[in-house]
Amino acid sequence: MEKELHFERSEFATRVTSVKKEMEKRDIDTLLLSEPANANYLTGYDAYSFYVPQMVVVALDREEPIWVGRGMDGISAFMTTYLSDDSIRTYADAYVQSALSPYDFVAEIVKEIAGRKTRVGVEMGGYYYSARAHSDLMKALPEATFIDADLLVNWIRLVKSPAEVALMRQAGRIAEAMMYRAVDTIEPGARECDIAAVIYHQMMAGTPEFGGTYTCSPPYLCVGEKALAPHAAWTDKPLLPSTIVNLELFGNRHRYQVNLARTICVGKPSPNYQKLADVVVESLNAGLDAVAPGKSAEEVHAAFAKTLAKHGHEKDSRLGYSLGLGYPPAVGEKTVSLRKGDKTVLRPGMCFHMMSGLWLENDGITITQPFVVTETGHEPLTKIPRQLFVK
Amino acid sequence: MEKELHFERSEFATRVTSVKKEMEKRDIDTLLLSEPANANYLTGYDAYSFYVPQMVVVALDREEPIWVGRGMDGISAFMTTYLSDDSIRTYADAYVQSALSPYDFVAEIVKEIAGRKTRVGVEMGGYYYSARAHSDLMKALPEATFIDADLLVNWIRLVKSPAEVALMRQAGRIAEAMMYRAVDTIEPGARECDIAAVIYHQMMAGTPEFGGTYTCSPPYLCVGEKALAPHAAWTDKPLLPSTIVNLELFGNRHRYQVNLARTICVGKPSPNYQKLADVVVESLNAGLDAVAPGKSAEEVHAAFAKTLAKHGHEKDSRLGYSLGLGYPPAVGEKTVSLRKGDKTVLRPGMCFHMMSGLWLENDGITITQPFVVTETGHEPLTKIPRQLFVK
């Protein structure tokens, strides 16, 4: 059976070593990862199976991580990871959504490899580490010490390797193709759901050279009044002859995701709205110009905010967030935000979405830019013009 | 600003009343719902915003539930719920992925409406109720008593109203359209990702009468060797002249989802494989024939299993699960499973996916049927022939 690995074995080894080093620093013997992106990062595991309990166990004393999941998904572990058979452990289907707890099964593995008194790191804030998971594990490992290791691996993921940046560039190509098709399709009378349809079609079709895959969230296609609501669902209503479409979409290649947003104006924009677009683009460019290794996240934010303030506007929400490997429900690595107070120093290989969307009292507008930090500044991950599109 | 509600106000009122009755029975004063489907069920709220902390608070002493979420999503709460302004409470963006906890904000609301010593129900096993959420809430409400109310609302959702069944039927129409387009597109040389593309296109385009929306998980398009792996990701490789495609897909209308799977054989199937298909269909039909109000979930399973056993096969995993309203990462209501030991009695309005997929040592096959329990038996939610498709 063929293995599908998107990185060299040595790259996985480097990642595991970095994680173990951080575990040592924090005095953690055994790390239980519930976050699917972290599991993928360390083992390669890729399947949409994390809606049932699934973990990757990293132990200081054991070379390979262990993947633990549902019986029927063991075959995906075999196909998509480099792990040896003994590092793939599956539980029976009787554990699925029943009175049995798969975390008892996980606890047995922890005892086997690290003993009863191990110091266990868990991802307290993870989407897939529920209050129940934590309670069950604590009950099953009464002598262990639990340590919050949330985002431990996320912070290591922050700086992307050249092989990862290559995938981010491919995801950028897909995001571009999606945006161009959306702009083509948007016109008066088109149903919102039919615009969503072509966006999704391109998301998967990707480019002739490489295909795409499902993203960490649906695109946000916010029309008319809903242009004020950043995360609204689309409807099946036809577009009016004059309306605003705020579109945030995502391209994904082997789980690496690039986010991109544009506003498309159906009909001629009002002079005020065009002016707002110009202000957003000017501020966005000022933010991008401030990106360089050694600069801090808040310095980038300040450059954007200063330009925006010059025109009498303010953005309440953060200016951006780091991008990379992700699974539903969200791509956000939950590490660096481009906002006041975030003093993280930028380094080459970090990727961000400069989410320069503004939601004012009566107007919403989204013209944004994903980028990777380079040795000298930044490289845009998409090449769509930074402008208001008018149809 | 226009409100978008998919049910009558009286239907929401009935739902809230049912939940409060169950709260009283369990001696819960205040129920904190983290599960987006439960929030939607009681308030109508619909936006893809649950990846940040978001809750619906139901208090015995208060007529309306309260929606709590991020500032920028308050407008979606206004647009998609019937709630009055005082029942929509939003926290500032400074709480998002920072050192501040939005659960402190939630705790203040709980104290305001129910006092410090309230008995609080929480969804311990919810995807969006992390170990951190629970820990923060317990810290912020030290005098409250916490009670596990996981699935409390899910069980009330189990029996669908006529208005809900109507949406399930529409979701079924979308699932059918998706399956027909997939079968049309599957042929030697087609890239897997291009097949995914047309499936997704139809998922959103829906029918000429009504549009579709994103589903709770991506379709499962498992080709060749991966037909053994139920939740594998697709690739961008072209289909071989002779291969198996196991396709599970989902139609979704206003968040109501219908699941459906078929196997499509590219090239002529081996006689053994065709025989396996016939056995699955015979067993599936036997299971469906056993569906009627008053029968138990395990009786339905037994009818399927008996027929399958007659042909020397066994299915390890459960035969099915209840379907309905859902959000990513999974549609499963986590209530009834069609399997041995589940004694839930079927009632009209319950919806299921009879997931009669088999994953044997060398073969995987998926021919399934979603249905609603009626007064006399069942109504299939899709009308695609129950057969192996050959291309």
Give a verbal description of the structure.
2 copies of one chain form a homodimer. Chain A is globular, with a radius of gyration of 22 Å. In chain A, the strands form 4 sheets. A 6-stranded mixed β-sheet of chain A has the order 4-3-2-1-5-6, with helices on both faces. The first copy, chain A, has helices at 9-25, 36-43, 74-80, 102-114, 131-140, 152-157, 162-185, 192-205, 271-289, 297-310, and strands at residues 30-33, 55-59, 66-70, 88-91, 119-122, 145-148, 220-223, 243-253, 256-266, 320-322, 351-354, 358-359, 364-365, 369-373, 378-380, 389-390. Chain A starts with 8 loop residues before the first helix and ends with a strand. Chain A folds into 2 domains: 9-157, Creatinase/prolidase N-terminal domain (Creatine Amidinohydrolase, Chain A, domain 1), CATH 3.40.350.10; 162-390, Creatine Amidinohydrolase, CATH 3.90.230.10. The longest helix of chain A is centred in the middle third of the chain and has 24 residues, at 162-185. In chain A, a hairpin with a 2-residue loop joins strand 8 (243-253) and strand 9. With 391 residues, the first copy, chain A, is of the alpha/beta class.
